[in-house]
Amino acid sequence: xxxxxxxxxxxxxxxxxxxxxxxxxxxxxxxxxxxxxxxxxxxxxxxxxxxxxxxxxxxxxxxxxxxxxxxxxxxxxxxxxxxxxxxxxxxxxxxxxxxxxxxxxxxxxxxxxxxxxxxxxxxxxxxxxxxxxxxxxxxxxxxxxxxxxxxxxxxxxxxxxxxxxxxxxxxxxxxxxxxxxxxxxxxxxxxxxxxxxxxxxxxxxxxxxxxxxxxxxxxxxxxxxxxxxxxxxxxxxxxxxxxxxxxxxxxxxxxxxxxxxxxxxxxxxxxxxxxxxxxxxxxxxxxxxxxxxxxxxxxxxxxxxxxxxxxxxxxxxxxxxxxxxxxxxxxxx
Length: 333
What we know:
This protein is mainly alpha-helical. The protein has helices at residues 2-7, 9-28, 35-60, 68-85, 91-115, 120-139, 149-152, 172-190, 192-202, 204-209, 214-240, 251-261, 273-292, 300-315, 319-322, and strands at 156-161, 167-171.
């Protein structure tokens, strides 16, 4: 048990913070501690979790990307137009188009970073502005509401009527999110590519000398994030039932904060899918609770920033300081 806690110190710390915040919010608000609100949180958080597991792979590989949310917006618009060209299509064609566009945009970042030796944050700041500028220029900020019926019709996987007459439900975005989470976990923990990504992120020069293909690692990491951005963009369009060019603008920093909060190291070579998911949920729970309490949206960033600082402090504190009664010495991860 002690070994398990030491190995997953960040995840246990995040769970502790989530429990404390949830307990406080359950007393502070009337509706927070309810099954309906929990299901709503899960549905709402699905797209951010999809983005987060994609970003996790890039961070593990030692890179950073802030263009994925805008790339997802480009994918939304491009997919909607392409579906119009083919007469509406279906879920399969929609996922293929969105995934292909997302991977293409992700590979553009990888090409700039690997071929032209541009630092990843600089390259993605550039593509962030290029993608968003081109999107707003060609769309003139006009949203698309005329989408195929299959994309706008809600897909409910589970629903139940509560005693008070309200309905709780789990929708398609949750299923897609689970598939993306499992796929990412499999990639980074059960494949040779995953081990190479960790090695490359931890020590790029050592990985190169060991024979790992550096270019392949860059394209796999950013291509995977592009894939998740494409899928997340399509799921967001389904959830919102419309395509708004700037709907995802600004979400990249929340997702980045959540992934780092979940234990991913900005220097590369470290990160877990569980920590990533918990980081997103912590931020979503905090925002949801503040909203139910009637706190001004302008205070969200300030309060969430404080929560992030507290959680990171806890996750980087030696466990024997937090649990002096446990009788063992933990190690900083």
